[in-house]
Amino acid sequence: MKNFYYILLLFFLISILLKAYAYEGKQENLGREGPLPSGPYKLGYKELERALKTEKKGKFKKAKIKFEKALDFFLEANAEDPANPDILNYLGLCSAKLGFNDNAEIYYLLGLELNEQHNSIKYNLGIFYKNQNRISDTKEILNSLKNCGCEEYEALKIQIN
């Protein structure tokens, strides 16, 4: 448990340093017409959607490349906004899909520390635990979703059975 807190502290310190060395201010339009390009969060989300669709088609090598791109975008988004549970959820999902299991669990747990009622993180963590054959942890997550009246509870219940 001590190691988890050391990793958590290290993660936040790195996030703060990355944010400090990133752009000191938001870039201006620089004479371009129209809206500014999409930020890393939106780009990561789009790439993640593409990766999941590609994975469903059975094209695992192409999906892996897309998950890696999405992970890079979400890492950049996390540097800009390190306390965002949605970003941590997607970092966990991309990490799990790429086989970075330790990182995935850390991202999910960090997201839950920030928002312990985040049902998507709970669902993804439950699926992660199921894939790791940690059935008791999966059932614990399912129980935490029991009274939410949400689709994540039903979906996780189906995945377990």
Would you give an account of this structure?
The chain is mainly alpha-helical and 161 residues long. The chain folds into 2 domains: 38-116, Tetratricopeptide repeat domain (Serine Threonine Protein Phosphatase 5, Tetratricopeptide repeat, Alpha Horseshoe), CATH 1.25.40; 117-161, no CATH class. The protein is built from 8 helices and no strands. The chain has helices spanning 2-21, 40-56, 60-80, 85-97, 101-114, 119-131, 135-145, 151-160. Helix 2 (40-56) runs antiparallel to helix 3 (60-80). The longest helix has 21 residues, at 60-80. The two termini are 30 Å apart. Residues 20-32 have low confidence and may be disordered.
State the separation between the terminal residues, measured CA to CA.
Answer: 30 Å
Q: Can you tell me the CATH class of the largest domain?
A: Mainly Alpha
CATH architecture of the largest domain: Alpha Horseshoe
Question: How helix-rich are the residues, as a percent range?
Answer: over 70%
Q: What's the total number of strands? A: 0
CATH topology of the largest domain: Serine Threonine Protein Phosphatase 5, Tetratricopeptide repeat
By helix and strand content, what is the structural category?
A: mainly alpha
Number of domains: 2
In terms of quaternary structure, the protein is single chain
List the main descriptive attributes of the protein structure presented here:
2 domains; mainly alpha; Serine Threonine Protein Phosphatase 5, Tetratricopeptide repeat; 161 residues
